[in-house]
């Protein structure tokens, strides 16, 4: 991967890591609307990979493969954000849903059930399930914004971060952990399989013996519960 001068050979780098770029692109694609072109994700991932050459610090103690994995995914997420492809009406509905969950949790002293959230929104349960599907299209970005990018997350040197930022990041992490832990068991399992085990919706459906659409609804609802708790 290195030239005779000790520099990273970009052609060898792309050849070695291209399978990883493709894998990450297709993993993201199954979570996104049909209009998103996987080739665009791959291109963004390759650009992110090449950006690693200039940014990587061999003295950081982090393996290049780990750093490249993070930068490739980050470049794809940045590409998706730059498009602002989620309709405003869907974003608005998502915010209203989060607010309803927050109100109900305060009133009930527990996580509300689906039928209770639907009633709070003045919807039939079927319409509520469709709303979950509609808003789930943007949740790969929302989860990264809330969970993956806590204050100070971009800093490579914790000592350089402001003390207030370090405290804020630690508090947010604890808050997120508490919110995830408080999820209903099935939604908690969906989150684990989706983000930690990196299964796609179809694979999770096979584990839970439910349809892919139902997994999408559970995923959407879990994210809304987390965001409502964090924003409270």
TrEMBL record:
Boundaries of every RNA polymerase sigma-70 domain copy: 200-226
Keywords assigned: DNA-binding, Sigma factor, Transcription, Transcription regulation
A GO biological-process term: DNA-templated transcription initiation
GO MF annotations, alphabetized: DNA binding; DNA-directed RNA polymerase activity; sigma factor activity
CDD domains: Sigma70_r4
Top-level division of the source organism's lineage: Bacteria
Protein name per its UniProtKB record: RNA polymerase sigma factor FliA
Organism of this sequence: Pseudidiomarina gelatinasegens
The organism's taxonomic lineage, starting at the top: Bacteria, Pseudomonadati, Pseudomonadota, Gammaproteobacteria, Alteromonadales
């Amino acid at each position: 991967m290195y030239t005779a001068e000790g520099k990273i050979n970009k052609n060898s780098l792309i050849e070695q890591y291209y399978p990883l770029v493709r894998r990450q692109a297709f993993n993201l694609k199954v979570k996104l609307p049909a209009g998103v072109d996987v080739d665009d994700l791959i291109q963004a991932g390759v650009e992110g990979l090449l950006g690693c050459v200039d940014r990587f610090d061999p003295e950081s103690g982090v393996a290049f493969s780990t750093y490249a994995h993070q930068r490739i995914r980050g470049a794809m997420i940045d590409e998706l954000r730059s498009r602002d492809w989620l309709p405003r009406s869907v974003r608005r509905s998502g915010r209203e849903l989060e607010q309803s969950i927050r109100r109900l949790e305060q009133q009930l002293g527990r996580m509300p059930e689906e039928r209770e959230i639907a009633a709070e929104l003045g919807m039939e349960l079927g319409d509520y399930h469709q709303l979950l599907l509609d808003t789930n299209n943007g949740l790969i970005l929302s989860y990264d914004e809330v969970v993956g990018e806590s204050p100070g997350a971009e800093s490579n040197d914790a000592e350089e971060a402001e003390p207030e930022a370090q405290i804020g990041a630690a508090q947010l992490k604890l808050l997120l952990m508490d919110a995830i832990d408080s999820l209903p068991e099935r939604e908690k399992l969906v989150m684990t399989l989706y983000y930690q085990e990196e299964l796609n919706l179809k694979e999770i459906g096979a584990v839970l013996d439910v349809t892919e659409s139902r997994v999408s609804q559970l995923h959407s609802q879990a994210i809304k519960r987390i965001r409502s708790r964090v924003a409270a």
